[in-house]
Amino acid sequence: MDFLVSGVVETMSATPEERRRRGPALRLAVAIGVVAALVSLWRHPAPNHHGRTKALVEVLASRGLIVDPEGVLWLSEPPYGTLAAAGGDVAVALRAATSPEEPNDIYLATARLSPEGVLLALGRAHNLTETTAVDELAPVGRELRFAFVEQPMLGDEKPSRVRLVDLVGDEPGSRKSWSRLEQLQSAITRIQQSGRLSGVARVSYKVEPAPEALKVTVDQTMLRIDADDRTATVALDAPLDVPSWMTVERTPLRRPGNLVTWAVDRVRAEIGDEAMQYVKAIAFSARDVVASNTEDLTGATAEDDIAADLGTDTLESAEREIPTDPEVGFPPPSLEPWVTPPLPGEGRWNSKADDPFIHQLPGLPPTFVTTFIRSDQRRKVTRVYIALWDPRVVQLDTMAGVAEPKSATGATGPGMIPREPKVLRRVAAAMNAGFQALHGEYGMMSDGVIYLPPKPYAATVAKLDDGSIAFGSWPREVAIPPGMISYRQNMTALVQDEKYNPYGRTWWGGTPSDWEDKTHTTRTGICLTREGFAGYFYGADLSPQALAQAMIQARCSYGVALDMNAGHSGLEFYTVAPKDELPALDRPLDRDWERDGDVPQMDGWGFRARRLIRGMGLMNFPRYIKREGRDFFYLTLRYVLPGEPIAGLPDAQEGDGQWAVKGLPQHGFPYAVATTEVALGKGQRARVLKIDPRMLTLEEGEAVKDDQGKPALVAQINPAPATNHSLWLTPDAFALGEQPAVAPAARIASGEPLAGPCRAAAGVEQTGGMLVYVEVVGDAPAPADAFRALLERLDVQESLALAEPLAIALGGDTSIAHTAVRLPEAADAIPVFRKPGPGARRIFEDTPIVPLKEWHPLQAQRIRYFKKPKDS
User: What is the pLDDT of residue 70?
Assistant: First the structure.
């Protein structure tokens, strides 16, 4: 080759006459050189895969990773031979562990190879899985795609999940709505997490039921999954198209947070969480000193700032307290101020019943009441905003995010309020939950899916199978009790029995664990009050003690500290409905804290949203109506009586269709029964009764007690003779059918399909599940069409005609016309009793308060984040 190069150089420097003379010789030399190069390339030895794999294993061993040589997958090859460049970058996936006792993870690295395939350099190995409850098996694939099987490490669980990784990354168009800053943040995050500007896209395939053996293979265009005798072939250009015996999920993109929170996470990923805690502690302490000295000099009380947060020009003292409904007990009395003199309106509940951004149920007290209170006598500008609700009316649910909490199995949550009309119509609010899993791995389960197991003595908010919300400190035994379907934990109790910090914790998330936590930052919490109500607490400049004192002033029986720091913490109110049903707002939106728009992934639906306060720094607002990376709580309205008045009634008189609940045998709240009267057409009138099955029981032992200490009777019913078409009362539900779907059950009434004139009819609400019973006033029957039209207005799709009105006595002695009645004794008479409805209560009350030296080692045991070296 040297003579070829020297000949070309010499020819290029020759005169034109000399080049013409040498032309034939030069062309011959070039031809010879090309042939020689091709021969050289053809005869070049094949790359030494074994040698470079051995070298890679040795390099990573020096960095603290134990690499399985059989689990090294070279994903792409540079060109080889003498015409190749002096090396090339190759993506390599590998199976590795940090110690022989730990399960393997899948890592991704970039290697620099020589033209002969010798390992010249190895970049950082990025852990793509970070699981501790599953062992990832060796990756298989080629080019820019690979897949692997997850082998569960717990019990006798069988492998059921395959994960596909695509190094091309997500489509850039999926981020087209992001700002340029968010695009830059995302690019930096992708590089940090995977070493690739494009990042990686991930798809999860789960085989159901789990097979005895699971195998995956990948070629250039297809992914094949073999599960015992079942085989699925998935086209890589359509990775979500799978057979019915598999479920598939693409890991969604997570929108970056604001610049500060994002930067903290990125720095933490480099220097480690412990070092980051010291950095934050120093910064918070310095800011606290400046703020405190400023207050001392100015004597500020924050009155103007509070007014701005509440969306008003000035604070005005409420003329009187919101009256408390004597049957409901909500809202409770105002709060006693802690800082004196109090500011106007401080501690007084503000009704949100007429707020267009807050979902309100008719005939009931406000869904939410709000107030503010100052809770730091040294820092009088420190204030806490509170939103309070009645758990008997508002249900709390837990939702796992698409990135947090990171589970030990690698499983992630939906990160989205269920896209179901019956749920979205009832959504009232959503707010942040607990810390990232990195900060303590506090337990979480959502709808029966365990993301992180519970930790002993951890402060816990749980949802029970009757829909109730429960608060308590988890016992030392970590078994999940029957009847619990969701839980979220965070640290130890902030307040218990209206006392601060019963477990003697010194670290509340703002400092390292060996520092006393006095930092002021954004903090949030949730609590159960002594009256049985629940509240969310938010403050932008709080110490742990100030947050706790606000809970104590609110009469909290049990309080839990939630997530902290601006951007990640806040509450949003919602009204959601089909867009043509959302009432128009009679003013422009205040873009500082209000939004409206389309509900993602729910065509034709819209939302209206508002922050709890104008100054709340919650990022990506509105946050929780979209898909969310971190776990959160969301609140929905329960189906409770009385419900909406009956609309569109013909020949309506005053009061028609307005539900009455007072003076009936309710025996507590929520109400069990409601009545009204309506015009049925052609001069006829009808009485209507609604009954909530969730408030009823057939068992005396399950019933609440009346004033005489006896089982509280809601109604006595003497059913008509049985036919093939019957109305049944089963636990928590009414149903129509020949036989009950579940036991125990009682036949409430019998009849025939609604076809001709009749005197009474009954059916079940399609959405709310209430029994709707209608009877004609007088002896003349009414046309079936009149009954059918009324029942359709009441959301009843399937109904039953009764030959005679139902023999029913409310409370045993009152007709649905509110007159005295006495039913004849009958052998088949059915007494229906009142049972407790869902609400809020304490659990684990026997968990002892133990010293730090006993609970801290148990909570410090790591599940997922055991001590590991940084990405190698």
Answer: 93
Please provide the size of the chain in residues: 872
**High-pLDDT (> 90) share of the chain, %:** 54
Q: How confident is the model at residue 36 (pLDDT cuts 50, 70, 90)?
A: very low
Q: Could you tell me if 614 and 310 are in contact, meaning their C-beta atoms sit under 8 angstroms apart?
A: yes
Calculate the alpha carbon distances from 425 to 35, 575, 720 in Å: 76, 8, 37
What is the model's pLDDT at position 193? 84
Find residue 464's DSSP bridge partners.
484
Per-residue H/E/C for 159-178: CCEEEEEECCCCCHHHHCCC
Over its C-alpha atoms, the chain yields an Rg (Å, rounded) of: 34
Q: Is the pLDDT of residue 517 over 70?
A: no
Is the C-alpha dihedral spanning 407, 410, 416, 422 positive or negative? negative
Per-position DSSP letters for 538-597, written without gaps between them? EEEEE-HHHHHHHHHHTTEEEEEEEEESTTT--EEEEEEEEGGGSPPPSS---TTTEEEE
- Over 109-161, what HEC string results? EEEEECCCCCEEEECCCEECCCCCCEEECCCEEECCEEEEEEEECCCCCCCCE
**In the predicted model, is pLDDT for residue 20 greater than 80?**
no
Q: Which residue has the higher pLDDT, 85 or 299?
A: 299
What count of other Cβ atoms lies within 10 Å of the Cβ of residue 488?
31
Mean pLDDT on 448-461: 94
Strand order in 534-542's β-sheet?
350-351, 368-374, 383-389, 534-542, 521-529, 556-564, 495-496, 499-500
The answer to whether the CB of 399 falls within 8 A of the CB of 628 is: yes
Distance (Å, whole) CA 272 – CA 282: 16
